Amino acid sequence: MSAPAAEAPVTTARSGGPAQGPRTGRRKPKSSFRRRVSTWDRRYSPYLYISPFFILFAVVGLFPLVYTAWVATHDWDLIMGQGEFIGAENFLHVLGERAFWVSLRNTLSIFVLSSAPQVVAAILIAYLLDYNLRAKTFWRMGVLVPYVVTPVAVALIFSNLFGDRFGLVNSVLETIGIDAIGWHSDTLPSHLAIATMVNFRWIGYNALIFLAAMQAVPRDLYEAAEIDGAGKVRQFISVTIPNLRPTIIFVIITSTIGGLQIFDEPRMFDQYGRGGTDGQWQTMTMYLYELGWTRSDFGQASAVAVLLFLLIVAIGLVNFIITRRISSSEVKR
Amino acid sequence: MMRTTDHHHEHDEDHSTSASAAPLAPTRAAGPARGRSRVLQGVALTSVLTLALTACGGSADGEDSEDAAAEGEDVTLSVTTFNEFGYEDLFEEYEELNENITIEHNKIDTAENARDSLRNSLGAGQGASDIEPIEVDWLAEFQQYPDRFEDLTDPELEDRWLDWKYEDAVLEDGSLIGYGTDSGPQAVCYRADLFEEAGLPSEREEVAEFLGDTWEDYFDAGREFVAESESAWYSGSDNIWQGMINQVEVPYQNEEGEVIADENPEVRDLYDQLLQASVEDELSAGLAQWSGDWSDAFQREETFATMMCPGWMLGIIEGNAAEVEGWDIANTFPGGGGNWGGSYLTVPSQGENIEQAKELAAWLTAPEQQLKAFEVVGAFPSTTEALEADELLSSTNEFFNDAPTGEILAERADAVETQPLKGTEYLTINVAIQDAINRVDVDGIDDPDASWEKFVNDMEALR
């Protein structure tokens, strides 16, 4: 991130500075210094005002990102520090480990199981909240409660619910004649349980974002649709959803970024926090943590971090392209 | 000590703020994303600090510590412990004895998290407490970094501990990395009421007799029990494994530190013997130690009848089995004696108050204080004087049917014959093999052979 000021100024570079409108001659021309200052002011101050974010991002976001890539190319021990330069060896080693691929599978699986239902459920909940309910604010605040509860507490409650032997969920299943499910031993059930925790936390939050977008949909569109004989469902599909498109893109992209980095919930899903005896629910961030802090190999941990970063960028781009394709294929209003 | 009192894992990579790398949506990404950006910052910060440290030649010898803490000046000492060391009252006592000293207690939930936290501080060159605990299973691992710890050798204290307890903490160059806190001689805890229901002897001496001398005797007793009872013989294979593996002289790594765990016939035989008993003969309740199901099971009708019991386990059983009557403790242990767990107090070199920290560590591990910790949490002493003390030998445990726990555990400590050679990777390897065992016994996703193959792969990755 170079200094923003070095980028091309917004105004076209006319030596005369700002456009000189017709002068009436009633005011004295400004001194050239003052004029220059005001020119600078107009040209560069916007950059100054947005610079704090970029400076902060460069220090705490970009620098660690680049430094991680640097660490990844070295033999690097947590305690002994930097070793020799070994190029792509860390990457090759990690890519050759079964645990890496298992964690990749788990990450994607938990991501899909949590993100897709999350967006759908959030839109539906938002649609319900958009009605003229009684005690509107109460309901709207209510959906945000799970988001406020700390993930640790959520994980504790849920891991009890999903206990293999004495958990509430299995007890209920057994009373209706279904066999107990191995929430902590089988791969897919463990992913479902973790996705449930994630959804519990994020659905309400996303519902509020969708709700805000829905409130911005012009009400006369609904009236027109109603006059044309569209029912509630048809209105929802033909009016609400198209108007929500930008918000949907936003939520999908942010869910992708967050969902692929999932750590808290799977880490606290059992007593050890390693992701199961066979890595059934070990996600990439957990694998990274294990490499870096348990095995103290920072080089390999950083290599996983870099790969995860690339994965997020790739999936984010795919998301973006697909959603844009969908939105542009629709008839523009 | 190796206990997990709850499943709550807090991570300690709390460096600076959490910045999301997504300008798009800081809020959303600050959720789950926090883990990674924190890790990244941890990486960056640690590396920067490491660089800084190596740049100044790592001369963190605490040369200025003596001036910083001249006699009588107010000093704050920080002490980290994990689980229950039983030190809370001792800290207060020490503060009263030393007007100028204030103690900050940093309590970590599990041994593994304590280890991660210490590794982190050593890597960063800062952040460690003045006194840090090290558990025997990861002692060798930290002995690889002798320059990061103060040498605690003190001629006056040399004969304070049991020989093996002291020797374990001595490095190659003769320096001493830590003062021993507790030890974990094991007896067998059992449910007298369940024994009785199954028509088996239930008195302490009779039970010791009935359980026999070897592991196979113990399993045979179990086969007899499960034939007559709805309950299992033990909670899960991992509990038994700790008893077994702590009797193997050279389990996972040889003298040279090479990983031999997957080629060691002794380890494989125990593994097969255990899983045969657990799964084929259905002696195990199939519960993973420390899990929610495991804690719950203490209160259930169909539970389990025996447990490997180091001193510190008594408090855990009492906590989980509150209101349950019938627990007792037998003065015996399959395969002879065995020690499970126990810790050391070390003084990291990066501290500001080395001398005062040494004094405090020496005081905390003195016989009188070890006895007080035993009173409070059952942490069994490791000093010879405390082991012979009357108050230890005469102590009884109300919950365990007023058993003379002090006497029993002291005898169990005498029965300990081997102190296994625990290498630098001991913890990692033991975790891997526990996972292998639990894949078969708890999860039921592999048969013993398939699970062993995965363990072999884990070992390959370590080499």
TrEMBL record, chain A:
Sequence ranges of Basic residues compositional bias: 24-34
Region (Disordered): 1-34
A matching Pfam family: BPD_transp_1
Transmembrane segments: 44-70, 108-129, 141-162, 192-213, 244-263, 298-322
Its membrane topology: Multi-pass membrane protein
Record's keyword terms, sorted: Cell membrane, Membrane, Transmembrane, Transmembrane helix, Transport
InterPro entries to which the protein is assigned, alphabetical: ABC_transporter_permease, MetI-like, MetI-like_sf
Entry superkingdom: Bacteria
Protein localization: Cell membrane
ABC transmembrane type-1 domain segment(s): 104-319
Protein family: Belongs to the binding-protein-dependent transport system permease family.
Protein name: Cellobiose transport system permease protein
Automatic annotation (TrEMBL), chain B:
Domain of life: Bacteria
Keywords: Coiled coil
UniProt entry tagged with the keyword Cytoplasm: no
Compositionally skewed regions (Low complexity) per UniProt: 17-34
Pfam families, A to Z: SBP_bac_8
Aminoacyl-tRNA synthetase found in the keyword field: no
InterPro entries for this protein: Bact_solute-bd_prot1 (IPR050490), SBP (IPR006059)
Region ranges (Disordered): 1-35
Coiled coil: 87-114
Biased composition (Basic and acidic residues): 1-16
Protein name: Cellobiose transport system substrate-binding protein
Lineage, top ranks: Bacteria, Bacillati, Actinomycetota, Actinomycetes, Micrococcales
